Amino acid sequence: MTQTIAPPAVPSAPSGASGATASAAPAPPVPSALSEPPAAGVTGSAIDELVARADRARRAYDAFGQEQVDAIVRDIGKYVYDNAAMLARLAVDETGIGVFEDKVAKNQGKARLIWNSLKDKKSRGVIGEEAVGNLVLVAKPVGIVGAVAPVTNPIVTPMCNAMFALKTGNAIICAPHPKAQACTIHLTGVFRAILREHGAPEDLVQVLPKVSIDATQELMRAVDVVVATGGEAMVKAAYSSGKPSFGVGAGNVPVILDEGIDVRAATEMIVAGASFDNGIICSHEQFVIVPEAMYDQTVAGFLATERVWYSDDPQVVDRFRAALFPNGAFNRTLVGKSPSFIGVIAGVSIPPNVRVIVLKVAASGRDDLLAREKLCPVVALMPCGSFEEALAAAEANLFVEGAGHSAAIHSLDDEHVQAAALRLPVSRLVVNQPCALTAGGSLTNGLAPTTTLGCGSWGGNSISENLDYKHLMNVSRIGRAITDRVPPTDAQIWA
Questions:
Q1: 282 is catalytic
Q2: Alpha carbon of 181 to those of 38, 76, 86, 134, 416: distances in Å?
Q3: Which terminus of the chain has a smaller tally of CB atoms within 10 A, N or C?
Q4: CATH of 253-439, one of 3.40.50.720, 3.40.309.10, 3.90.930.12, 3.30.70.1450
Q5: CB-based contact 140:221 (threshold 8 Å)
Q6: Strand partners, 404
Q7: Catalytic residue among 160, 174, 183, 282
Q8: What is the pTM for the complete model shown?
Q9: Max Cα-Cα span within the chain
Q10: Per residue in 360-394, pLDDT tens?
Q11: What is the number of helices (H) and of strands (E) in the chain?
């Protein structure tokens, strides 16, 4: 059957984000004038000059204490929070992808979430002790961070990277995506003005305004640490730069629905995640696996959200399969596009108020192209005979695409949750939450707030966790003798 439904509601904001109206929290200093970052071309000498300025600024920044650093970091986040709507409009207009209202919620939600996670953390000088080992921990900067920003998140990713870098005493040079240069140049200009208002060197934040592949690769070779949030080729280039690098991997989130759950609540959460910003969040729900006995109930749950268009007609599903994966490769022109736009490409009429397309499939892994990553609001729905079959289907999908990233499960059975965590090659398993809105951290879970989700060795990454400020901080350990410790004998050691 093929059904359409009534107008959608605006999806809930991620991480507790509200609408476009800022709270009554104290505002950051208003920059007297935006300070444009120094211009740079694509030559090595120009990049060398950027790096030299960044190094001088970072050394001067060493004199800033924890309170001064935190005030700067707070004001960067607060600027994005207070100007969420304007920045969302800038991103939509420049990139042509995503949803304005969702970008407003994303800007506010990530700014709030990241500052909340950073504000009480020590990152300067002595940051802690380990009593058992009689160690004292001393924080040091990593140096100059080169940060590559994606077209999918041209506001919150530069914001997040700048907050992490400055929190830990580093300078940062941003390399924007070619289709989002204005966003990054605007942000870095504002961040420089905030630095100036706090008496800090402006060159702690810089940008490549004339972006190119060659310039970005040259930058990655010139800095001390690279944070690459973007496509597979860019991440591989970062790891080939010869510098310590943090990258991401492809997302392709399988979602397992277990018996005994509140199906209506689960489908609401899946739709909230898959629809958010037209599906450009890398951790958004892609492929839902449900017990056969719950299939009709699950379809009813999706339709009850009044935001879903569903089809189980094989010919209709084939049209979408061909539109999404012509010649077997994902159609990049559909990234972040609306269901109605995707419908036009597929030759199927989708009402403009629909937020998610749900398509019935019968196979997973290499047996169906719809089991791959789709950076748009299209979700595959597959019935299965048992929980073991659901795990096998999810695993098959991830080993085709998305290994190391994320999976989701809606379950009340702790043994099933643990079985999924043991079986699936993912760095994060999101339980009973909208994955797209919480895998990058949430006020209601313990995952580190970030915009860079590491995928471990499965995804060719150096970390299997969410990137946060600690990854941009060296730590010296003062090791003193443990005078009250009696060393074990050889007999005790080998017993």
A1: yes
A2: 14, 19, 16, 48, 45
A3: C
A4: 3.40.309.10
A5: no
A6: 426
A7: 282
A8: 0.89
A9: 77
A10: 999 999 999 999 999 999 999 999 999 999 999 99
A11: 16, 16
